Each structure stands twice: as structure tokens, then as C-alpha cells.
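Bump. Still looking for F-box domain-containing protein C-alpha cells.
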Amino acid sequence: MLERDGTGNAAFKKVKLEENSKELRYSFKPGLLTLSDDVLLIIFFHLDPIDLLSLSECSQRLANICCDKTLWERVDLRPHRMSHNTIMKCLQFLQASTKFLATQGFTSRKNSVYNPTISKSFLKTVSRNAPNLKTLILENHIIDSSKLILEDFPASLEHLGIRNCVMTNLPGDRSYFLKLNKTLPKLKILDLTGNDWFPPHSLLALSKSPSLEELILTGCDVRDALPYASLAANFGFSSLKALDLRNTNISDIEVTCFNRMSTLRHLYLCGSDNNQIDESLNIDTSVTDYSIVTFGGGPGDGARMAAHGFGGAGPNAVGAEVIILQVGSFQRTPCKLETLVIRNYPGITDLTLKHAASFMKSLKFIDVTGSGCSEAGILDFKNARPEVRIQPDIISKV
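Sorry for the wait, here they are.
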């Protein structure tokens, strides 16, 4: 029996509300599909492409959201080593908004050279689905050059990376990069890091590209490249600004060629801890003062040095001079380096620092870590050119 003051009715309502609340709490099961499309899109933006591929197979609604163009502007598949079939599934999501694509293969696996991981159908799909692609990076892949030619790559590319790849069936009578200037007319950056198959004569083909601004050959072997480097540097590379030749077994005689590249602003050289001489091949793969002092000026104002051998002063030092002559029948303005990295070369001494301080007027950064430069030489350079950053950065104890 309810009381007339209504307190019993209020208590009944309270019990009823608590029961309804419990029923609602048990019946409501929050899940992915309860979120709005806008919220899901924000969440999906932070997922990897492989995760989006999995979600797209869960429901039609999720598949539609996974296809949003904002999710596929930058596609980096390198965190996952995928099979060719899985990669091809991901490529179906590429769109006109896609500007970046990177993949990783299986070159570290045994017998992988018998199973190419980049096919012609791969590049055809990329070209069809992502007509505005700017960057394509292929790492640790197997490429059969007889089936996948340079003309198969998207003509829209501005940055092409073929890194640590195995290239089989290379043509013996021409460069794989022949007609690069016509096939990839917009190419600005070419990264060939870690490719021991790279033949030095390909420098000529690469040098014909009028748009190429950065060439990365880290880990490639460019020994015996003198004739190709000389011709390429004197008559090609009309737009090249950055050249990376770290760990390439390059020697003084090739390095001297690159001072003729008037557009060059950044040069990266680095030897291994034991780079001085390749005794097995009887080839000097060292970089010394001999080549570096040819940079920064023409004959008579820095492009000459005392002939003290390849390491500066030595037991057979003489008073004569070595003059680097102009190659070719025309004068070409020497490059104005802004960045010079010459690491792990004991033959780089204080002579290089003195030359750089006097003749490399555009220099902004120099790295002589692991070289034969002394602390006093580094301090003298800092005093002469305080606006230039130098590594190692020796601090005066005074």
C-alpha cells in the first residue's frame, strides 16, 4: 500500500530507473561499428596499410571507409615483409592522391634470387591506380631486369629508390639506366644504396638526366670509374646538387673529376676503418688531401698542392707542385660546396682544412671525423671560419 505523501511512489520510481539502467548497460555493447564514419576515419589514419587491408575484409562499411583517399596518400609497406599477392592486394587501394609508395622484399632469405618479388604487373598496377605517384622506394627486392625494364617504372616519379636489391639478368652491352632522361623525365632523386651490381659505366647514362638533383650511390663499388666519372662530370649532371659516394671504394683520381660539376653543393665521402688499400686487387681506394684541394678554386688559387704523396707531408716530400688540369676543351666553373663529408680517411690532414678555410667560400658544414686532422688544425679552421660547422667539434681548452 502506497503512502499518501508520495514517498512510496518515489521509491518505486527509483527502483524502476535502476532496473532500466542495468538493462540498458547490459544491452549496450560498444564496438567499432558503433562509432561514426568521421571518428573511424581519424582512427584509421593512424593504422598501417596492412591493418587497413584486414579491416576492409570485415564489412562493407569498413571497406568503404578504408578506401578514403586521405588514408592512401603515403603508403609505406616496409614495416611488413609481404608476399607478392599481399602487396598486390594493397596496391588496389592506391588512388590519384597517392604520392608515396615504399615496399620491402626478402633478399635476405636463401634462394630468394630465384623468386623475383617485383613484377611487371606490380608496376602496371601502380601506374594505373596512382598516376600522380612522386616517390617509389623498393628495398630488399629481387628484380629480373630482363622482365622489368626501366620503361615500366611510372613516368611521374621524382624520387626513385632501388635499395639493397638483387638485380638479375643485367644486360651486358648497355646500362640498365639507358635513356633514363627520357623514361623518367621528372626524376630528381635516385637512391641506389647497397647495390653491388651497379656498374660504373652507368654514370654516363645517369649524367644525361637534366632533372637529376641528388644521386646516392652509398655502398656501390665505383672502382675503375675514372673514364666514366670524368666524362659524366664534365659533360653531364647539369642539375646535380648532391652526390653521395660513401663506402664506394672511390679513390683520389675519381674524386678530382667531380670538382667540374658547377651545380654540386653537397659531397659525401666515407671510407671504412680499414679503407686505405685494397691489397688483394692492388687498388688504392683511399681519399686524401690530393683530391680535396682541387675543390673550391681553379688553377692558381687552390687547385694545386705540394706533391707530398697521397697523405700530405711524407718521407719523400719534394718541392714540386701537382696542378689539376682542366678536362675537356672548355672551361667549366668549379663547384661551390656547401657540405663536405670526408670521414674515416687518414690521408685527409690539416692541409685539407687550410685549403677549405681559404678557398671553399660557400662552405657551411665539413665533417672530418676519423681523418688525420689534428685538434690544432680543427681549432685553426674554427678560428678562420667560425660560421662553418665542423665535426668533430673540438673545444679550445684555453
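The mean pLDDT is 83.

Edit: fixed formatting.
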